[in-house]
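Tutorial handout. Part one gives the primary structure; part two gives the three-dimensional structure as tokens.
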Amino acid sequence: MYDRWYTTPLQEKLSRPFVHLMFGARQTGKSTLLNQLLPPDALQIDLSNPIERTKYLARPGEFISVCKALPADKPGQFVFIDEAQSVPDIFDAVQHLYDSDKQRWRFVLCGSSARKLRQTGTNLLPGRSFLHRLFPLTLAEHPADSPKLTADFSLLPLAWNSPPKNPFPAWDLENRLAFGSLPGIVASEERDRADILKTYSIVYLEEEIRREALVKDWGAFIRFLQLAAAESGQILNYGAISQETGISKPTIKNYYQLLEDMFIGFPVPSFSKSPRKNILSTPKFFFFDLGVRHAAAGIVPSTNIVKVNPGSFFKQWVGIEIWKRLQYLGTGRLYYQRTRDGAEVDFIVAHENRLMPIEVKWTAHPSLSDARHLLTFLSENSEKADRGYIICRCDRPMELDEKVLAVPWFCI
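Part two.
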């Protein structure tokens, strides 16, 4: 069993008498992690099983009866419901049971889509629940193959209580850009990764979407998905996508929201507090994992594809890594900035009342010319931003200016 960074925070919170909601995309390891932490006698209900799902959709009250049949003299008995979003009424049943006796049961509800919950106004148990999110692997869990520095140097550190005893296999940068960081992909043999990712992008998405009746025209959605994946990391242009796919702009917007609800992608908004007047305001949209992005775009993932456009893939990988860190830290936001004349800061991290502008360069030999947009941003936001960073492929940190530091990719 490989070590996950979120194990310790989750284990501590599971000991507390609240309902626990865990969300995340398929194959991020939610069920594996929970099964590792929950006791062997936990009641498990798997709603991805059509028989179980149909039973509780037809008679959700049976869930209450099943829980009440558990021994009453064992307080804190765990009840684990996987793919809970498949039966939204289960959330009301959980609230009924929790409110009747806060100590008897410890409910853990796991889900890979928030779409149906949001559309039906499902009760997410406010005031009664802890919300957990699990993501693909971070650098803290999936180390670089041969870093020149220790992991103590990091722009956004995810601290372990103790060093991981069983980290995931170490990879070089090219493999990360080609195959992403889903746990099952990282742990698999290289010859199987492309097939697993292809299955993920086709079978999982089709199964999930069809099961929840989220899309009426599957062919239109596939055309959208391929283009959205190809455009990952770019500024959203609903009009251009609508024209190329023949899908209306309102439907395109709905499809992007669907990807976000299924945790397949996330928006990065434009930094709106700039003193400049010619800043673009449209967000960018990123797929949550590069391997899934490639497969969804109809590309066979391999290290060879990295050579086609390494700078773009590298920038997406950095953005995804920073976004995952911020989600786990539970504080901070990720932005970008671009002017109408093309001047751009790739990422801006707002964290602990400070701003951290970041440029991403594929080069192994950064120079001060790579930092010109960072220096402009620093001068315009001097009250909150005192240093900028270039993330690149250099071997060790390099000071390019008293306000700009070049940082190796494995030191994010």
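Part three, for discussion. The chain has two domains: 7-133, 173-411. The longest helix spans residues 190-211.
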